[in-house]
Design goal:
Number of helices: 20
Distance between the termini: 29 Å
Structural class: mainly alpha
CATH class of the largest domain: Mainly Alpha
CATH architecture of the largest domain: Up-down Bundle
């Protein structure tokens, strides 16, 4: 393939996937400002992230399969266009309902574009060039993920949170132009079975019901328990369909004969639940309680991604010599220590003496487990199954964050309400005023008093009690995340990592 085509593939793949990576991290920093605009509860706000992640995680493997069957460039371009249109809808959203629906469409577009971008690179480059091209793709993915919170914070602070979504539009136009101009079409001529559409629908319905039930469990919603039961039933049906019925299952049951593959995905579920479920709440702590600007909140986590990017190559090579047990165990232990550091950082004080040490420890932890985990997943299966194995592991990480945000959000809401009630009682607030404040605890549970309309007397009381209650709830969430990190470390230490590649795949 000529040099122009290879350059076009790399530019389109890197820029296209970067849209999704930037968006997934930039939006979190803008969420406190989104809440101030729409004046919604913390549970409603969670769906801005959960809707995106739900459709991305459930459709990612299907997106890859559609590209293999109908043309990787075609599906990639469709995904970019869908992502861009959904971004425009997010930027113009007049209500929270429109915003959530648009975020679901964004996740669907990303599910078509992200696996397609890497598939185009793999199909275009060969030998050592393929490794270097994938390395370039991975490096830019890390850099754009790091830039996301900073860019999102700067746009939200300087212009508007709506600008965070509008930045995707010129990138999308350039990506589509490059793809149509210089990227050759490719597909897997061996793939004759249809994509696993029914499996995708069961996964979306099951995860959606489970997430709804977990979020609703933090309030008085009577549908919480039925939704949880329905989610469990649908996911059980999904597992049965994948293992017994599907002609081309997205989960490829044969891969799970490898203990190393199973262990690495269990580790992913536990550790990425700790990361995704806890880091979602950090911008609320920094902006609403610690009074950081959106830009400063975006910069606060930058050392984490920089350290992961700088250290991953060395730890990736190390795991090939000593195996995954020690790096993955160290990653889990350091993750637990980092979240305990987040929990201990008190209100006020310099960033360098409060949150910075915990962020640095978390960055070292990420360097210990990110590349070793990917290497372990790829080494656990035959080369012909590398794509689907990577997709399953990526989906596991997304699902872990999806469920953890819902569950930890319910925990945070419960602890917040209890501490708020106790705090209002302790400072002698009149029962009528306390009842008025507690009636709006769903909107206040992000730590921001301005999230709701309160009379001046109520606002003065809430101004003292709300941040203190959120701080206590935030500490509880960080402690639970630390426990998940310790559980991941124990799993890595005691798991049997001697399994070889799966034969016969």
């Amino acid at each position: 393939m000529n040099r122009r085509a290879r350059a076009a593939v790399l530019v389109a793949a890197v820029a296209g996937s970067s849209m999704a990576f930037i968006d997934s991290t930039a939006v979190n920093v803008a969420l406190p400002l989104v809440q101030a605009t729409f004046r919604v509860s913390a549970a409603q706000l969670q769906w801005i992230v959960e809707g995106y992640t739900l459709f991305l995680s459930a459709l990612m493997l299907t997106g890859g399969a559609l590209g293999d069957r109908f043309g990787r460039r075609r599906i990639f371009v469709i995904g970019i266009m869908l992502f861009a249109l959904a971004s425009l809808a997010c930027a113009l959203a007049p209500t929270i309902g429109v915003m959530i629906a648009a975020r679901c469409l964004q996740g669907s577009g990303a599910a078509l574009a992200v696996p397609g971008s890497l598939a185009l690179v793999s199909a275009t480059f060969a030998g050592g060039d393929r490794g270097r091209a994938i390395g370039t793709w991975s490096g830019f993915s890390a850099v754009t993920s790091a830039a996301g919170p900073v860019l999102g914070g700067w746009l939200a602070q300087s212009i508007s949170w709506r600008a965070v979504f509008l930045i995707n539009l010129p990138i999308a136009v350039a990506v589509v132009a490059v793809a149509l101009w210089g990227v050759p079409e490719s597909r897997d001529v061996r793939r004759r079975l249809p994509p696993d559409i029914w499996g995708s629908l069961l996964a979306i319905a099951g995860l959606g019901a489970l997430v709804y039930g977990a979020i609703a469990a933090g309030g008085p919603d009577a549908l919480a328990r039925p939704a949880l039961a329905l989610g469990v039933a649908l996911l059980a049906a999904f597992a049965y369909y994948e293992w017994r019925i599907a002609p081309a299952p997205m989960l490829a049951p044969s891969l799970f004969r490898s203990k190393a593959f199973v262990g690495s995905n269990l580790y992913t579920l536990v550790l990425y639940a700790a990361l995704g479920g806890s880091l979602y709440f950090v911008p609320f702590e920094l902006i609403n309680v610690q009074h950081y600007t959106p830009l400063d909140a975006g910069l606060a986590l930058l050392p984490f991604v920089v350290l992961v990017f700088a250290g991953s190559r060395g730890f990736g090579a190390l795991v090939e010599r000593i195996g995954p047990r020690l790096p993955l165990t160290a990653g889990g232990i350091l993750t637990a220590c980092a979240f305990l550091g987040f929990a201990r950082a008190g209100e006020g004080g310099s960033y360098w003496s409060t949150f910075f040490p915990a962020v640095v420890v978390l960055g070292v932890a990420g360097a210990c487990f990110v590349a070793p985990l990917t290497t372990t997943v790829m080494s656990a299966v035959d080369a012909s199954d590398a794509g689907i194995a990577s997709g399953i592991n990526n989906a596991a990480a997304r699902v872990a964050g999806l469920l953890a945000i819902a569950v930890l959000g319910a925990v945070l809401a419960g602890v917040f309400t209890d501490r708020l009630r106790a705090g209002l009682s302790r400072i002698g607030v009149a029962p009528a005023i306390a009842a008025a404040v507690l009636a709006q605890s769903g909107a206040l549970s992000s730590g921001r008093v301005g999230a709701v309309s309160l009379p001046s007397a109520d606002r003065a009381s809430a101004g003292t009690a709300v941040p203190a209650a959120f701080r206590a709830a935030f500490q509880t969430v960080m402690a639970l995340a630390a426990g998940l990190g310790a559980l991941a470390a124990a799993l890595a230490w005691f798991w049997d990592w001697r399994a070889a590649r799966v034969p016969g795949n």
